[in-house]
Amino acid sequence: MTIILIPVLIFLIFLLLLIILTFFFLAIDVFLDLPYVATERFKIDTIFKFAQIKKGETVIDLGSGDGRLLFAAAAGGAKAVGYEINPFMVIISRIHASLKGLAENIRIYKKNLWQADLKVADVIFVYGRRKTMQKFEDFVFKNAKKGTRIVVNTNPFPNKKPIKSEKGLFLYKV
Prior knowledge:
Blueprint: H1 2-31, H2 41-51, E1 58-62, H3 68-75, E2 79-84, H4 87-99, E3 106-110, E4 123-127, H5 133-143, E5 149-153, E6 164-166, E7 169-173
Parallel strand pairs: 1-2, 1-4, 2-3, 4-5
Antiparallel strand pairs: 5-7, 6-7
């Protein structure tokens, strides 16, 4: 009987540690005021319709989370770059990129998104809370090259008029 209980006990301890680690890494986002919020799948088609990404272009996702936008961009032939500070999300994204066979076209940096090199971007994806959108607007328009397309999810830039908007998505151009 005790021989059977040992593997079960080990599994339960492992599961508990996994839950604690998950909570810890997701809590990091809350303290940084930019929590992980996955892009709803129904918005992805509109995001890519707005972005008009061409093969070989470079896409940057500021706060790439689980990498779903990076995977879609890379699958279409783009070079996809994600900036994500949550190490748990970075690991998950890198594993998924490898499993999907997209790792060659995707780079995910465990780095503060405010340190992103936007000069290389043809397209930038942004999601932020309403109170951080002014900071995003200033950062993107100061650091991205002319002609860069920016797709913003949920909260628009406060001082720029979008070229298009639909389903809570907003398209801008530097």
